[in-house]
Amino acid sequence: MAIKSCEIIGFPELDPVENFEFVSNTSYGTFKFHFKWINEAWSCWVTLPDESVRQAGVYPNVKNWTGFNDYGLVFVTSLEKIDFSSLFLTELYLIKWQ
Q1: What are 17-43's pLDDT values in tens digits?
Q2: DSSP code at position 90
Q3: Most exposed of 2, 19, 44, 75 (fewest Cβ within 10 Å)?
Q4: Under DSSP, is residue 84 helix (H, G, I), strand (E, B) or coil?
Q5: With 90 as the cut, is the pLDDT of residue 16 above it?
Q6: DSSP 13
Q7: Which of 31, 86, 37, 81 is nearest to 61 (CA)?
Q8: DSSP secondary-structure letter at 64?
Q9: How far is CA 15 from the centre of its chain?
Q10: What percent of the residues of the chain are helix, what percent strand, and what percent coil, each to the nearest 5?
Q11: Of 35, 26, 25, 27, nearest in space to 90 by CA
């Protein structure tokens, strides 16, 4: 799947906590991100503008949702693992597929 465009999603200004969510207004619409620290790993759920919800793996440089034809998500980092304290050290990109 080819990338048409992408936008960086800024994390909120807060210290990492085990359960948080935030809303991001993008040129593609409004997305709600919900993060939970479960079993020593981050889990992420995203509510899309059409109100559907998708889960995303929080892994370094792995493109999520490649099986869909609308959006993708990737956590860009030079880290080998995204642990509790390093989530906000990643760059979160929302991808628009062609």
Answers
A1: 999 999 999 999 999 999 999 999 999
A2: S
A3: 2
A4: helix
A5: no
A6: S
A7: 81
A8: B
A9: 17
A10: 5, 55, 40
A11: 35
